[in-house]
Every structure is written in structure tokens, then in C-alpha cells.
Amino acid sequence: MTSPASMPAEPQWRPPRLSVVVPTYKERDNVLPLLEKLDLALAGIAFEVIFVDDNSPDGTAEAVKQAARTRPNVRCIHRIGRRGLSSACIEGMALSAAEFVAVIDGDLQHDESILPQLLARVEEGADIAVGSRYVGEGRSEEGLSAGRQAGSRLATRLSGILTGKALADPMSGFFLLRRALVMEVAPHLSQEGFKILLDLVATAGRRRGGRLTIAEVPYSFRPRHAGESKMSPLIVAQFLGLIVSQLTRGLVPTSFLLFGLVGVSGVFVHLAVLSLAFEVFGIGFAVSQFIATMVAMTTNFVLNNELTYADKRLTGRRFFTGLLSFYAVCSFGTFANISVASLLFTAEMANFVFAGIAGAVMSAVFNYAVTRIFTWR
Fold it and tell me: In terms of C-beta density within 10 A (0-12 exposed, 13-18 middle, 19 or more buried), how is residue 88 classed?
């Protein structure tokens, strides 16, 4: 029998000083390479890695759980029924008990070797340290196409208007800060969309009267290791929506802006189908109007499902039940539109143009509020 004295001593556990949050979706083949790189980069620093996976169909969460069996500093939040990068980052940072938290992408494009520098800058007094592709020797050519680089430069200008700070890389998803700061601003952050850094900077800066210190550490953006890029027109639209939402101090949510833009597109769809049915095919006006209305409502539902509520996207059977509820809600919204416009016009409180606009706004607010509760709940 082996005596206790002769048994190998278990490694002494140290509470992590740093939690590295990795939001993932379909990044299975990147899990182990990222962990190995983090082990090298953070040698000598007590750290943990918190993967937040949005129920990836490729088995990313299972790959993380498999790694956690031999790596006690690896944890996984396996989210089912919830999606979105910003909300994943917030959830992962809220789980941490470490003094410092960092966010890094799971595709190996961010250079994990600068994490100690980011940590040092925050320890020296910076509120947020950002890995930047656009300061000093930072580079983005290998990891970004020319079009994405142009878009990133535009985002930089817009963020400067919003925050009043010269943040060179506001689209960066690579940053580090104290957990206390995250907890201070978390209730005021938008959980919609895919870019959280700008939201953090704008919200924290506003709450601290503009007294927010940002340090930027250069790094070279690498090509993706495996999987597919998540960049899409949706992310661009949500980023622009976040800009407007922040300028209105959150009065106009990003999702409402997207919902409104989809509604505007529905007007053009309606007019195009109405013209086609009535003028080209010679269908009676009432029937043409009905067809145009149904087509516009259907396209609005599909676009909202893919854009406005991408984090709550309905699939399978729920797609069709959601479509039916959308039809029902929009029918009531149309009634509200007509009622409000008619009341204002007949009471001579507004001319027909303003009455029509008021009715349309009322309908949009009604449809947004009710579909958020019943269709994309």
C-alpha cells in the first residue's frame, strides 16, 4: 500500500488574478490551439479561461468541456436559446471573481502574447487597455480585407464623435479592464449586437464624467486559424445602431432602430408588389393591396428574424408560429396607425402629412413592443 508521504503532491491551487473571456460560435478547432497559446503567454500569471459558447452546432462547447477535464482553469458557459457577442462577453465577465478580466476572440486572430502588457497598463492606472491594430507597430493587413479596413477606419471616426476620445481601434474585441469597472457599468450596457468595446467606453466615460483613461497596445492582426469569419452586414448595421443609441443615451434601443429600418424597407416592398400586381398583372386594387401587405409583412418578419433579433432567431417550427404571431400583431398595429392618424386629422390637431407620420410612428412602436414580447420573447 502506498503511504501518503510517498504520493505525489497535488499542485497548489491559486485563485486567478485574470479571467480571459472567450465568446465562441463554431470555433471547435480553435479551442485547444488557443489554450496552448494562452498558457505560453500568461506563464507565471494565475489565470482562468471562461468560454461562453452560443450552443455551436459544431460541438465547440463539448470541446471546451473535454479540455476542462485536464485543465482546472478552464470553464464553459454553454448558452442555449441565447445568442450575441456582447451579451456573451457580459455574462462571462460577470461570472468571474478575478480582479481583472480580458476579452479575446476565439479565432486566434488576436495576439494573446500582449495580454501581460495589457494587464500591466491597467495595473499602472489605465481604466481600459485595448489591443489595437492601428497604433504604433500594429498591423491589420493580414487579417482584414481592404473593404473591412476601410469600414474600420470609418468606425474609428464615428466612435470619436460619440466618446470624445481618440480610440484608434473601437472595433477591437480585444481588451482588458478591472472587473469592478465592468460590474459598475454592466446594468447600463446594451446586450444587443457584436461590438462591446465602444459601448463600454461610452457608458463608462459618461458615468465618470469623461474621466476615463484608455491605453492602447499595438499588435498585428493575424489570419483566422480555422472556421469562418463572423463579420457580416448585420454587424455593421448593429454597430451603427449602437452609435445612434448611445447618442440618444439609450432612449432609442439598437433593436428599435433596426426594426424601424426593416419597416422602411417594407414600404418599398409593398409599393413594388402593389405596382406589379395592379399595373402589370391587372389584379383588382383590393386584392393587389392585400397581396402587397402580406408580402411586405413576410419580408419584414424574415429580415427582423435575421437582423433585429439575430440573437433570438426563430428556426424550424418556431419560425412559422412566429410568422403567424407577427401577422396578428402587425394587423393590430395597422389598426393603431389608422386610429391615431384619423383622430389627429379629424380633430384638426395636424394636417394629413403629420397625422400620417404620427400614425406610422405609433404603429412602429406598437409592433416593436408587442412582437418583442410575443414573437421574439
Answer: buried
Residue 1, Cβ density class (10 Å: 0-12 exposed, 13-18 middle, ≥19 buried) = exposed
**Which three three-digit cell numbers place residue 217?**
497596445
Task: Give the residues across from 169 on adjacent strands.
Answer: none
On whether the CB atoms of residues 362 and 337 are closer than 8 A, the answer is yes
Q: Can you tell me the distance from the alpha carbon of 248 to that of 4, in angstroms, rounded to the nearest whole number?
A: 65
- Give CA–CA dist 10/342, Å, rounded: 77
Nearest one of 288, 262, 259, 258 to 275, comparing CA atoms: 288
Q: Measured between alpha carbons, how far is 85 from 91 in angstroms, rounded to an integer? A: 10
14 conformational bin, left if phi > 0, alpha if psi -120 to 50, beta if neither: beta
The answer to whether 31 touches 69, Cβ cutoff 8 Å, is no
What are the CA-CA distances from residue 110 to residues 36, 62, 125, 131, 196 (Å)?
14, 23, 23, 8, 16
Cell of 361: 410612428
- Pull the grid cell for residue 152: 474600420
pLDDT at site 143: 45
Which residues fall within 8 angstroms of residue 286, CB to CB, at 6 or more apart?
Answer: none
Q: Is 6 helix (H, G, I), strand (E, B) or coil?
A: helix
pTM score above 0.85: no
Alpha carbon distance 62, 65 (integer Å):
5
- Is residue 1 predicted with pLDDT exceeding 80? no
Give the Cα separation of 219 and 133 in Å (integer).
Answer: 6
Cell of residue 198, nine digits:
465602444
Per residue in 228-243, pLDDT tens?
554 455 566 666 666 6
Residue 210's SS3 state is: coil
Can you give the pLDDT at residue 168?
75
The single-letter DSSP state of residue 139 is B
- Angstrom distance (rounded) from CA 238 to CA 84: 11
pLDDT for residue 197 is more than 50: yes
Q: Which residues contact 277 (CB under 8 A, 6 or more apart)?
A: 283, 287, 288, 291, 292
Least confident of 152-156, 170-174, 271-275, 322-326: 152-156
Distance separating alpha carbons of residues 121 and 125, to the nearest angstrom: 7
Q: Which residues contact 141 (CB under 8 A, 6 or more apart)?
A: 149
